[in-house]
Write a structure and sequence with these properties.
By secondary structure, the chain is α/β, with parallel strands linked by helices. It is built from 8 helices and 21 strands. It has a domain of about 220 residues.
């Protein structure tokens, strides 16, 4: 499991930048965010994906000045309510998303796809970060680029889109939007970026539709798949992750921090452990996890970091076990790893969760459940697990944890230096013997 961050504001101070460089391996940022380039200099293996809204372009955005052929248009007079405001458009008006100055992209022809791809590469990949002329992005993050188009408002009347003949937002339009408009564009952009050694991340809008597979290198599910919200069955999420993995792609989990719903609640520890468990239940070694926590929790004091950052306890679980991926047990979901397991009890819509919904979950005999800070507990044969709660357990006798890579490297260097000193000493003794023998 890799660890990702989203950084839209400049990190304050060298210490924070160093922590980001040490803790994360991938992130989303803007090319003009001060400090992003410095983090990559601190960790050359860090990968920044720079932000661009995929389905729309703001009027007058530098480097994205397009003619009308690049946008979708209404073929008839149309009334839309967006943001609580009713707006009327005449036939031929551009389709807007989010606000009046953001035009929906028309990418259903080879010419328009190529023009948009060329603009994205020229503006986001071929230009360096604004505060460091020698550092470039490792990929592109396309926001608002899921299986369905969102944020166009509510069609009150009219709404037929000239480029496809379907009413904006209708089932027919949404099918056309992915199959002929944004989907082929994403696939083509991914291929072009990959040819340059770059990657594509798309924000999937919360819909893990299997038709997305092949369209990106990372599928970013923002505010989805928390331990409380199961709009999509977690076994389906695990299957999406598996198929993405087979396509050399990965799911990027970014669940919201949420502790209450439908009159039920979880503690802070249960919510954080639950979100980690869901990602570990469904994810794979190339998946990415971005954890969110309440603003009143100091990230420098987050106890869960001792479990999640690279080199920590999560790595002791090892690789996925012989039973590859999540499976359904009698009263919970489970993913086996070489040195342990992840258990989670989901809920159906409307089910109670938290206190009062505990049930006994059988574990491997002698397993040791981890606390949120990664401390293994006493050996158990079962645990009490409430709905929407998860647990990570180590086997009774897991492989002993090795030294962190940097300490192992230090030991190896010391050993090499010792051998070199011994070799030099032996050579000196041989020289002395030779001189004395003359």
């Amino acid at each position: 499991m890799n660890h990702g961050t989203v950084m839209y504001v400049a990190p304050r101070g060298l210490e924070l930048r160093q922590k980001i460089a040490d803790r994360f391996s991938i992130g989303i940022t803007g090319r003009d965010v001060v400090g992003a380039a410095a983090i990559k200099r601190l960790n050359p293996d860090f990968r920044w994906h720079v932000y661009k809204s995929g389905t729309d372009t703001a009027v007058g955005a530098p480097g994205y000045s397009f003619g009308p052929v690049m946008f979708l248009h209404f073929s008839e007079p149309t009334v839309i309510v967006r943001g609580g405001v009713e707006r009327a458009y005449g036939a031929g008006a551009s389709v807007r998303l989010y606000s009046e100055d953001r035009y929906a992209m028309h990418l259903a022809t080879p010419e328009t796809r190529e023009a948009y791809i060329a603009a994205i590469i020229a503006n986001e990949i071929s230009k360096p970060f604004t505060d460091d002329a020698d550092v470039y992005a490792d990929g592109v993050f396309l926001d608002n680029t899921g299986y369905q188009l969102y944020n166009y408002g509510q069609v009150i009347s009219g709404g037929t889109v000239a480029e496809c003949g379907y009413v904006l937002g209708s089932r027919e339009f949404q099918a056309w939007h992915w199959q002929e408009n944004i989907g082929p564009f994403c696939r083509a952009l991914r291929n072009r970026l990959n040819a340059r050694g770059k990657k594509l991340t798309i924000n999937c809008g919360g819909n893990p539709n299997l038709a997305l597979i092949g369209a990106a290198d990372y599928f970013f599910f923002e505010n989805m798949f928390s331990c409380i919200d199961h709009i999509w069955p977690l076994l389906d999420v695990a299957e999406f992750d598996r198929l993405a993995h087979e396509d050399d792609a990965a799911v990027w989990y970014a669940p919201p921090y949420k502790t209450s719903d439908d009159g039920c609640s979880l503690t802070y520890e249960q919510a954080m452990m639950g979100n980690i468990s869901v990602a570990m239940l469904c994810g794979r070694e190339n998946s990415v996890l971005t954890l969110m926590q309440p603003a009143d929790k100091d990230p420098n004091l987050a106890t869960w970091e001792r479990m999640t950052w690279p080199g920590r306890i999560m790595e002791r679980l090892g690789e996925l076990g012989e039973v590859d991926g999540a499976r359904e047990m009698s009263n919970h979901l489970c993913t086996q790893y070489d040195n342990g397991e992840v258990d989670f009890r989901p809920r159906s819509q409307g089910d109670a969760f938290g206190v009062g919904t505990e049930d006994e979950v059988a574990t491997e005999p002698g397993s040791r459940p981890l606390s949120l800070d990664g401390t293994p507990g006493d050996p158990v044969e079962s645990i009490q697990l409430a709905r929407c709660c998860g647990a990570i357990l180590l086997d009774a006798d897991p492989e002993p944890p090795g030294c962190d890579d940097k300490y192992q490297a230090v030991l190896e260097n010391l050993l090499a230096a010792t051998n070199a000193i011994q070799g030099a000493h032996d050579n000196l003794e041989s020289y002395r013997a030779c001189v004395e023998g003359r």
